[in-house]
Design goal:
- This protein is α+β, with helices and mostly antiparallel strands.
- The chain is built from 4 helices and 7 strands; from the N terminus they run E-H-H-E-E-E-H-E-H-E-E.
- The chain has helices at about 15-20, 30-40, 85-100, 115-125, and strands spanning about 5, 45-50, 55-65, 70-80, 105-115, 130-135, 140-145.
- The longest helix has 14 residues, at about 85-100.
- The chain binds coenzyme A.
- Coenzyme A (COA) binds near residues 84, 86, 112 and 122.
Length: about 150
């Protein structure tokens, strides 16, 4: 199966909204509906559908802050029926490459709920490291990938 990221359009946004998390996972990430609305409102976030061949399996959203030379990966989810098949990691790797294509990009930031062991392991395997910082409100652990 080939993992690709595709723009969200009229042709596939319903599929993105129909993606489901597993029991207890809903609290770990905002709903795709919320994220699409946020992207529309903030005008900077890039929401993308994750595909395995021609099947929509997940959702990811990022943005690049040129002023601080920093990329942010704000959302990542894979439908529970498609988890543990490598799609989440492949999608993260592709987003990292896209952010790195900004010539000044020095680091990429993401975060996860303190008890989200799967996200912790996944991001660590891609080179993200803890900074000791938490997100506003203290709910999430911040990790940074340094671009050399
Ligand atoms: C986090 C998430 C996106 C991972 O997606 P995925 O496609 O299942 O992950 P992958 O198959 O690419 O796995 C990548 C790595 O994550 C870790 N991982 C994934 N599922 C795991 C599980 N059930 N138990 C332990 N580790 C797991 C492993 O380190 C794995 O690498 P390995 O297979 O080489 O051991 C998915 O579990 C998800 O949508 N979770 C709910 C929402 C969420 O937590 N999003 C992140 C918010 S910060």
């Amino acid at each position: 199966m080939k993992t690709t990221l595709r723009e969200i359009t009229m042709a596939n946004f319903r599929e993105c909204l129909a993606l489901e998390l597993g029991p207890g996972q809903e609290r770990l990430v905002a709903s795709n509906m919320f994220s699409l609305a946020e992207a529309k409102a903030d005008g900077v976030s890039v929401p993308l559908a994750i595909y395995a061949d021609d099947t929509t399996v997940g959702f990811v959203m990022y943005w690049y802050d040129e002023a601080n030379a920093r990329g942010y990966i704000d959302r990542l989810m894979v439908d529970h029926r498609h988890q543990r098949k490598g799609y989440g990691k492949a999608a993260m790797s592709e987003v990292i490459e896209r952010l790195k294509s900004n010539p000044n990009c020095r680091e990429i930031q993401t975060s996860f709920a303190h008890d989200n062991i799967i996200a912790d392991k996944l991001y660590a395997s891609l080179g993200f490291r803890r900074t000791g910082q938490l997100t506003d409100g203290g709910e999430e652990t911040i990790v940074i990938l340094k671009i050399t």
